[in-house]
Amino acid sequence: MSAVISISGLTKTYAGGHHALEDVSLDIERGEIFALLGPNGAGKTTLISIVCGIVRPTAGTVLVDGHDIVRDYRQARATIGLVPQELVTEAFETVFAAARFSRGLFGRPPDDAYLERVLRDLSLWDRRGDIMMTLSGGMKRRVMIAKALSHEPRILFLDEPTAGVDVELRRDMWALVRRLRDSGVTIILTTHYIDEAEEMADRIGVINHGRLIVVEEKLRLMRKLGKRQLTLTLQDPLAALPQELGEWPLALKANGHELELTFDAALEQTGIPALLRRLEQLGINYRDLNTRESSLEEIFVSLVSERGPGRA
């Protein structure tokens, strides 16, 4: 795949001296779902705002489908749809008028049939004549998405799109995202719901203190940085770990009823067969065993807690 967004050496320093972004370089591939994760204040929204032409960078370049976001602003912005965190809507407009107006802002010719499809996909068609100020927060969020899609963008930014919305909207939104990706639209999302990124994303980027600390294909990231745990449920509880088991990284859990081994999922030699043989030699019997892998959320927490300011 070719890069539809190419970011090089991007830096943003505000007047007060705050470094929101420091030397960020990133290529986003055409047609992928890319999840940008990071704690509050990490620089996610600043990065999105620069790519979308809302904030000017201090240094660095951004190309959107080959267009420089500063020199070729109009061409670059026309390819992008943005769903911001904040609910900003025209209070006295109808749902349909708001979507139609957004389409016109980008110079697109009227196409009510296309807008109808978008509103139907977002379960808004029956509310098309409603005044915006009468809608619930969840419905307003749907309208924000409809407005972002109104001009048929090939790149869609979703900045915390499911924050504070109901389960039904989350389900509808991710079904729509999948359909858009299948049609060739590139999706970039930020979310505090790490399970959403784990389910939806093709690649993951983690940003912390304005620095991009990792960019990796999702499954490869989970294999590389993830851990696996083997839990043995013992027949009889142990008061303490026997010295003979000291060569394994074991923990005694559940008041001595469980032995937990943490090991690297990427290693061929996990040490498990040798551990089971040693347990048998020691007469330590178990009645059940199970394994689990690290979730993306656990990997994310580990990354942002280990790398503080100044650590790239």
SSE layout:
Blueprint: E1 3-13, E2 19-29, E3 33-37, H1 44-51, E4 59-64, E5 67-68, H2 73-78, E6 80-83, H3 95-105, H4 112-121, H5 137-149, E7 155-159, H6 167-182, E8 186-190, H7 194-200, E9 203-208, E10 211-217, H8 218-225, E11 227-234, E12 250-253, E13 258-264, H9 272-281, E14 286-293, H10 296-306
List keywords for this structure.
312 residues; alpha/beta; Rossmann fold; Alpha-Beta Plaits; 3 domains; six-stranded mixed beta sheet; four-stranded antiparallel beta sheet; 32% helix
Helix-strand string: EEEHEEHEHHHEHEHEEHEEEHEH
Low-confidence stretches: none
Distance separating the two termini: 27 Å
- Helix and strand composition category: alpha/beta
How would you characterize the overall build of this protein?
The chain is of the alpha/beta class and 312 residues long. It folds into three domains: 1-79 and 154-163 and 182-226, P-loop containing nucleotide triphosphate hydrolases (Rossmann fold, 3-Layer(aba) Sandwich); 87-153, no CATH class; 227-293, Alpha-Beta Plaits (2-Layer Sandwich), CATH 3.30.70.100. It contains ten helices and 14 strands. The radius of gyration is 24 Å and the shape is elongated.
